[in-house]
Write a structure and sequence with these properties.
Elements (H helix, E strand, L loop, with lengths): L1 E4 L5 E6 L3 E11 L2 E10 L4 E12 L4 E8 L6 E9 L3 E14 L4 E3 L4 E7 L3
Antiparallel strand pairs: 1-2, 2-3, 3-4, 4-7, 5-6, 5-8, 8-9, 8-10
């Protein structure tokens, strides 16, 4: 796992496998909201469907599962951004698994867990 500089200037974690990359960044969106930004890329050509599963865990209490999917479509880079209400506190986001199906029928799986954390404010 590496900590890299994201495309919007926020740090994110990423893991690279033989099919592409899996990345996650979470950051404070204020008023108890967390901004989640996950990305799946393919180095073996476009994929038609993709999905991942993970969680958010607030140190002040609270846990929620996160599961998302893409498709059908055709892309080599799926950027999934959405808000999650977590309440205030230090929040850790984690993607435990991911997979995609390539346009030619091959399947790629994530090689490791990715995680990212931030402090979410109540104001």
């Amino acid at each position: 796992m590496r900590l890299l500089q994201g495309r919007w200037g926020t740090p994110y974690t990423t893991v690279a496998g033989n099919c592409g990359t899996l990345s996650l960044s979470v950051f404070n969106a204020h008023y108890g909201w967390l901004q989640w930004m996950a990305e799946i890329t393919s180095s073996l050509g476009p994929f038609v469907v993709a999905s991942y599963g993970g969680s958010v865990d607030n140190s002040s209490g609270g846990f929620a599962a996160v599961g998302r999917s893409y498709g059908p479509g055709l892309t080599s880079d799926w950027l999934d951004i959405f808000p999650i209400y977590t309440g205030a506190g230090y929040v850790v986001g984690q993607i435990n698994w991911a997979q995609d199906t390539l346009w030619w029928g091959g399947t790629c799986y994530s090689v490791a867990v990715v995680g990212s954390g931030t402090y979410v404010t109540s104001y």
